[in-house]
Write a structure and sequence with these properties.
The chain is α+β, with helices and mostly antiparallel strands and 653 residues long. It has 13 helices and 30 strands. The strands form eight sheets. Strands 7-10-6-11-12-13-14 form a seven-stranded parallel beta sheet, sandwiched between helices. A four-stranded antiparallel beta sheet has the order 2-3-1-4, sandwiched between helices.
Length: 653
């Protein structure tokens, strides 16, 4: 029989045997009736930052945003010996703790209660608890940064983390000012052991980058004394020890949430995860990094089957998808089941709208432990891969770098890259970021069940988004091509305007434009004088040059030049440039029609080029490819109606 998370109770009461076996339950409500909060006044339960995110991405406020009806929670609390653990407004349910059978019976009798389902076992004083084996492990020893110098143009000296940043060209983002500033991330994990004292986190402590903490297991604010796993995951993003260990988004601000109870494995941890995601959403957090997953529990009645991992069944997958619907980017580890009998990914990495991350080493080789996809409904899973094999993480003793293994470390590495990319392009949505990271993967055209679309390339993602946000318009008026376009630039980025006329075989550079402001969307305009250009098709293209890192064409435009504005009243011949390296342009303006002959000879009088044509009144540009000719002096002669009009010496270098 299919095993799902909830064993829905249809009886009014709950048997004594059930209450003796379990102490934590999920209470699901039928509605949000009698709710004092309203959709019309969301500032009661969402911060301004959360509201701004909804406005930016056109996300409507709906009933799922309303808190659980307080009167319902008060009724649970007053029903007997009941402790409220946490609530989920998205799923309209509350986690409680009780061993009071009478209280459970009373709760089931409430007309607003849909069901009361056990979710975790009862624990007794002195009881030996099983240890959760799903979290990743680290190798002993401290890594030396020797022999790993910074790149010549690198903003950071990454030390031993050089490989796991540069496999995604994350250094490209860092070098251009995108290091996580202004972005907020929630890290959901099992604890953040000694993050308040380890040197790995000096930078985020000194700069007040930890905005808040909460322990959803113990219901307290401190997370510093708990498990090391979350601390190590955080280190892959936030570390900033120059020359030794630098993370993928060290300037990000963080919320640190403990949702995982390392001593046991029960679906209550999924409830904790959703409650933490809701808190992050309410605060306006941009990204959640989740290096947790579930498929088998300490009580087999809660176990999932592979068919349950369809993105819509489990508590955590449903919660992750709602978080994505609210505009947050959910980055989730695929799991470490590749060598186990289960084999497949674990939840919530099966959720439809999350970025699921598998593990590779710095050379791109897949970790054998990394969970296989797809999800049971056929989604490409994992979606992408990052370094989780010999991943550089903080040592638990002193915070210096050591090696770790697991998709748990691939996940935050990718979360950091995603954060810096989104910082550069806040105009696009969380789903756009997922899409562009997938598109930039080295396996995009042939996705598989190990790395999905492959290893994302941040530079390629950047280029794709530059093109996505680029816009242009043009017109011809007063014998001028009026070119206008908008593109995101800063003072390290240039736009080269190129043109090709009908009959020409090569583009000619017209001008180079630059904006001296900080990175952002900027408007550019350029007028190209067509008064001496013959009528016909005129094509333009726009090349973006980003420092010395990369260049690419944003777009092109074609104009139909049919204005009779090229009347030439005087004869003129222009030969340029001089010296020439690639293309020589010969512009011939004629007030009357004539037969033209162009001859180019080398320094010893040998003819290396000739062309003869009939020219109507007007202007013609002949572009001659010189780069294949030997360097040296050449003589260009133009004949008009068989009479020599000009001879000019040019230097090809």
């Amino acid at each position: 029989m299919k095993k799902t998370l909830f064993i829905f109770l249809v009886m009014i009461g709950v048997s004594y045997s059930a209450s003796a076996q379990f102490s934590r339950y999920i209470i699901r409500f039928r509605d949000k009736g009698s709710n004092p909060f309203s959709i019309a006044n969301p500032s009661q339960y969402l911060t301004q930052r959360a509201l701004d995110r909804r406005t930016r991405y056109h996300i409507s406020i709906d009933s799922s945003d309303l808190p659980v009806t307080p009167r319902y929670i008060d009724s649970l609390r007053s029903s007997g010996n009941v402790t409220i653990l946490n609530s989920s407004k998205w799923l309209n349910q509350v986690a409680i703790q009780t061993t009071d059978a009478a209280a459970l019976a009373k709760i089931n009798s409430f007309p607003f209660v849909l069901s009361a389902s056990p979710i975790a076992a009862r624990t007794l004083p002195g009881m030996d608890l099983p240890v959760n084996k799903k979290l990743d492990s680290t190798a002993g020893g401290i890594l030396s940064p020797a022999g790993r110098p910074a790149g010549v143009n690198d903003y950071y000296n990454y030390g031993v983390s050089n490989g796991q940043v540069k496999i995604h060209q994350g250094d490209f983002l860092h070098n251009h000012g995108f290091r996580g500033e202004g972005m907020q991330m929630a890290v959901l994990d099992a604890g953040f052991y000694h993050y308040l004292s380890l040197q790995t986190f000096d930078s985020i402590r000194n700069n007040n980058q930890v905005l808040g903490t909460w322990d959803f297991v113990a219901n307290e604010s401190s997370v510093n004394e708990d498990h090391t796993h979350g601390m190590q995951c955080l280190s892959t993003i936030a570390a900033n020890i120059p020359g030794t260990f630098v993370g993928t988004a060290p300037k990000t601000s963080f919320y640190l949430y403990r949702t995982e109870d390392i001593s046991s494995e029960y679906p209550i941890e999924e409830q904790n995860l959703v409650a933490a995601a809701e808190r992050a959403d309410s605060l306006g957090v941009d990204i959640c990094s989740v290096s947790l997953g579930y498929n088998q529990f300490d009580n087999a009645q809660f176990n999932y089957t592979y068919s349950d991992l369809n993105g819509n069944t489990t508590i955590s997958a449903r919660g992750a998808d709602i978080a994505a619907k609210k505009g947050m980017l959910m980055v989730i580890a695929a799991g470490n089941e590749g060598n186990n009998s289960w084999h497949y990914l674990i939840t919530p990495s099966d959720a439809d709208s999350v970025l699921t991350v598998g593990a590779v080493d710095t050379t791109g080789i897949v970790g054998s432990f990394s969970s296989y996809g797809p999800s049971s409904d056929g989604q490409v899973k994992p979606a992408v891969a990052a370094v989780g094999v010999f991943a550089v993480v903080a040592n638990t003793a002193n915070g210096l770098p050591s090696y770790g293994f697991g998709t748990s470390f691939a996940c935050p590495n990718m979360a950091g890259i995603s954060t810096c990319l989104w910082q550069a392009f806040p105009e696009v949505s969380n789903m756009d970021i997922i899409d562009v990271l997938e598109r930039s993967g080295n396996n995009y055209n042939t996705p598989d069940n190990r790395t999905g679309y492959g290893i994302p390339d941040a530079k390629r993602s950047f280029v794709i988004l530059q093109k996505k946000l680029y816009s242009q318009q043009s017109a011809i008026a007063d014998c001028k091509a009026k070119l206008q376009f908008s593109v995101k630039t800063d003072n390290t980025m240039n736009i080269v305007v190129e043109r090709i006329l009908a009959g020409e075989t090569n583009y000619t550079i017209l001008t180079t434009l630059q904006n001296s402001s900080v990175y952002g969307m900027h408007d550019f305009a350029y007028d190209d004088d067509l008064s001496s250009v013959a009528t016909g098709t005129v094509k333009y293209r726009f090349k973006m040059i980003i420092a010395a890192d990369t260049s690419f064409y944003l777009d092109s435009m074609t104009l139909d030049h049919n204005q009779d504005c090229h009347v030439v009243t005087a004869n003129n011949i222009t030969i340029s440039p001089n010296p020439v390296s690639e293309y020589l342009n010969i512009t011939i303006a004629r007030a009357t029609a004539a037969k033209i002959n162009i001859v180019i000879q080398n320094a010893i009088g040998q003819k290396v080029y000739s062309d003869e044509f009939q020219q109507a009144a007007g202007s013609v540009i002949k572009t001659i490819l010189m780069k294949r000719m030997s360097r040296g002096a050449y003589f260009v002669t133009v004949y008009i109606d068989k009479k020599k009009a000009i001879t000019k010496e040019i230097l090809h270098r």
